[in-house]
Amino acid sequence: MKSYLRFLSRNKLYTAIEVVGLSVALAFVILMSCFVWQQRSVGRQYPDFKNIYCAGAYNTTFSSVRFSNIISGQIPEIERTVNIVCYEGLMDETIGIGAYMAVSPDFFEMFPCRFVAGNRDALENASNVIITESMAGTFGGRDALGKDFHINNERYTIGAIIEDQEYSVFDSQYKVFISLNHPDFAFYKNTDEYQGSADGNSLTFHKVRNGADVGNIKKKMNEINDSHLIREEDKGKELYNLTRLDKLYFSDSNQGLGIKKGNAKMMKAFCIIAIFILISAIFNYVNLSTALAGKRSKEMATRMLLGDSRLKVMGIYIKESLLMTFICICLAFLIAKTCLPYINRLIDSLVPVKISFSPSQMILYLLILIVTGLSCGILPGIISFRFRPIDTIKGSFRHHSKKTLSKLFIIIQNCIAIIMIAVSLVMGSQIRHMMDMPVQVDLDSLYRCNTQTFNPGFEQKLRGLPYVSDIGKTYGRPCGNALNNVIPLDENYTSLVYLGEIHCDAAAFRIYGFEVVRDYGKPGMRGAWLTEGAALALGINPDDPVLPRDMDRMNQGFEVAGIIKDFALRTAINLIENEYGAVYVYDNWPPFAGDYIVKMNSITKENKKELEEISTEEARDNFGPDVRANSGLLEDLIKADYAQTRNQLAMVNIFMVIAIMLSALGQVAMSTYYASEREKEIGIRKVFGGTVRSESARNIREYMLYCLIAAVVAIPAAWVISGRYLEDFTYRMPQKAWIYIAATAAVSVISLLAVLWQTLRATRTNPAEALKKE
């Protein structure tokens, strides 16, 4: 080991490149492995998680408390049922509006946690609440037990305090739990006259008997559900679904309401890039270790000639590699800890990344250490064993290594770099492509007043503001929320058209600036305005348009009022494939609530703040103090939808910079070694008439050939990887050749600069000095 440390001290450049490259790569591997581990741990902290299922209807996580009470007594495989209803309400003055859950009294039997004060029986008393430890801090910590707690002016008593749950499946904003047995929720228990279906607004969890047939349970639930359905067309369909607790976080049915929702696509993409970075760093290490093996070849050959076995020599390589990896992983923890707050801001996950040293995490870190250390140690050892010790003493190893191994490793390193840079550019370009999606309507200077109802007095107040030029009434908006509708094209429901609907008055239609293709001259613009895509999908004859019966679900006697250009119903990240648009214009407002859309002629911070304040005040006057109004400029609301997407782009850029850095470090190190190995050859050529220019050009051409070979291999691989990534997006960009050209050019420039620097140093060396070297 002393000889290894002495060797490292004599080759400081190579050592620095190995340590920096491997440490940075390991730092991000540690962060991403913690991210994945903690994301996949959501819901797994409960002892019975494999037997707990979330029951939901219509491919959601929502069910009905009443219906769950019916089925829990009819299916013997169900051992326990817990219901949850999520609310927001006005709490004590020090808290303001907060989120709380009304739960079954035995909630903490199914979802046990550590109680800081009190116990799980607290909810048996319907006047008690259980709060989290962070919430209790507002009331004096553990001394909060027994104190009064108010929700919407209703007095409760703090009956217990629980530890905050980092990896709980439930949204961490819910810090207060009250009992569904409270008189305010008595209507949930009435099942005698219940008619309807499993569809509802509650979260229902069933704990099933160990070894129970979940498919059979689901079948029984749907059969019971059939007997309570009102709509005949829904009977016989499998409307009820069951999702196991540990699968819920990434489930497609999870809408993120009351339950944490993970982004499996983002996790997968970041993991793939992190693995590529680690592979690149390992190749850097292996490349340098193999190249430098020539400098240590006599030491290893001497050991073997003196009786050491190949296995023992391999052990030396592995121990040295594990020592280097251990040093790098220690530095990696420091880098990861420093970058952690910034990474968490970019990932913006409900389960933030946390570097912990729990037993399970320690096993994970040890696994990373062993895999990386063995990879970095075994490969150089195997390669060096291709030559006999006596050949090494005679110098054959150096001859063959410089002719074969260096070239191979340079090509592989370039392949990895091109793939990483290309994939990163594709990810970044796709994100920008989504953010730049054309909306085909005029959203400039439009403000949404999220009042959730219409009041002539409030409308008069808006018209009195000097910066308001026009006002419309709307339910739904472009690039936002829209009502969903499914229109059958035949009686058997075999062919369906999916519609996103916006309901508004003529003023809002005008404010949105829809581009009219055909106007059938209906009075007051009243009727259904179909997009070109919707008209085509529905088989509408433009010369004799007839509105399908199922489209007039409000029974307004609507006809086709016109055809408009297709527009963006949603932002690119929320697009639904094969969904078309329809805008319904009313002369009298429709039988449901909506928002005001305001056209502003002057946009200032003060004006936006005033509109937000009066909109929030109006919403709370009508619906109580627990209402949260989501008002704002449409452009700002759309940007907010892309906040996480922009953070992902920043993460991608970080990975790309690391990829370029690793490539540059590897190229500099390998070109340094390669140039030093060829100093004597260059010296001989110069003696026989070679010049600095001719020798530099010859070496650069050779390196550029390696880049070309790498590009031939890497571009098809990067194309396939990028194509699979793009398949997951509804609104996706086409593959672009410039990305792969740019990735190849970037690696070529890095190689050129690295080689030029070292080659010029080698060619400018005095031939006499070069020929003196061993």
List the helices and strands and how they pair.
Elements: H1 2-10, H2 12-40, E1 52-57, E2 62-63, H3 65-72, E3 78-90, E4 97-103, H4 107-110, E5 115-117, E6 128-132, H5 133-136, E7 148-151, E8 154-162, E9 174-179, E10 202-208, H6 214-226, E11 240-244, H7 264-305, H8 310-347, H9 359-384, H10 389-394, H11 396-435, E12 446-449, H12 456-463, E13 468-475, E14 483-488, E15 496-505, H13 506-512, E16 516-519, E17 527-531, H14 532-537, E18 560-564, E19 579-586, E20 595-600, H15 605-623, E21 632-633, H16 634-641, H17 643-677, H18 679-687, H19 692-726, H20 737-763, H21 767-772
What does this structure look like?
This protein is an alpha+beta fold and 774 residues long. The protein folds into four domains: 166 residues, no CATH class; 199 residues, no CATH class; 150 residues, no CATH class; 196 residues, no CATH class. It contains 21 helices and 21 strands. Strands 1, 2, 3, 4, 5, 6, 7, 8, 9, 10 and 11 form an eleven-stranded mixed β-sheet that branches. A hairpin with a 6-residue loop joins strand 3 and strand 4. Helix 2 packs antiparallel against helix 17, helix 8 packs across helix 9 and helix 17 packs parallel to helix 20. The chain is globular. About 1% of the residues have low confidence.
